[in-house]
Write a sequence for this structure.
């Protein structure tokens, strides 16, 4: 397929998609130009759904933030949801063929595992033998630039609240996790926790122990948050 383009301004209807070549008028000469597959970027979902899906197999949507990629899958019968799946207007709902959103891999991004270690109202007690809760890592995590935090619903008073977390039977701290008296979060601790284990394997078992509570008010509603990079 070839087409001679005489206009200085062109629209996407002037372009031929796919491999091969296209002829262009350059001055008095007509020269073949290598044809490439282009990605057309649109502002609205309605524009993408209105396309001729036979010509536009790979498109982008730019609304806010990065361009979202879509590709046309001629065999898809997924239901249109105006997000992950876009059905072209030229297709009946019963016909196969949909634009499918390209989801980026979530590897390499921060994620957080949150576990509750008590109810919300019962004062927490010290226990360094029986864990307050046990949970498992659903995927490997790198804690090199990550952290572990503790929070309470009711702040301890009279003394700091101190937590130890074990992974597969071994503490992951060289300095234990603490919540200062009168505070509800370990983020504001005068003595921040220091991690001694930075690599969390898939399905690692976490156990949460409480080594110290508030001497006047113990503290209630303990939660643990493990934040790291998925690997």
């Amino acid at each position: 397929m070839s087409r001679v383009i005489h206009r200085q301004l062109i629209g996407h209807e002037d372009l031929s998609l796919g491999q091969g070549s296209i002829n262009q008028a350059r001055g008095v000469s007509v020269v073949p130009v290598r044809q490439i597959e282009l990605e057309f970027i649109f502002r609205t979902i309605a524009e993408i759904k209105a396309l001729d899906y036979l010509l536009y197999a790979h498109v982008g949507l730019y609304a806010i933030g990065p361009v979202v990629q879509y590709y046309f899958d001629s065999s898809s019968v997924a239901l249109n949801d105006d997000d992950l799946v876009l059905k072209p207007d030229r297709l009946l709902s019963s016909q196969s063929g949909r634009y499918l959103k390209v989801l980026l891999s979530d590897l390499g991004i921060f994620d957080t595992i949150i576990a509750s270690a008590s109810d919300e109202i019962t004062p927490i007690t010290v226990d360094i033998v029986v864990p307050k809760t046990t949970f498992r890592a659903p995927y490997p995590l790198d804690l090199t630039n990550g952290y572990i935090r503790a929070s309470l619903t009711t702040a301890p008073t009279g003394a700091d609240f101190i937590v130890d977390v074990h992974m597969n039977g071994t503490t992951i701290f060289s300095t234990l996790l603490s919540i200062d008296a009168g505070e509800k979060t370990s983020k504001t601790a005068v003595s921040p926790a220091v991690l001694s284990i930075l690599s969390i394997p898939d399905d690692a078992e976490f156990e949460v122990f409480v080594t110290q509570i508030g001497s006047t008010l113990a503290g209630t509603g303990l939660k643990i948050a493990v934040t790291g990079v998925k690997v």
Q: What stands out?
A: The radius of gyration is 29 Å. The first helix runs from residue 45 to 49.
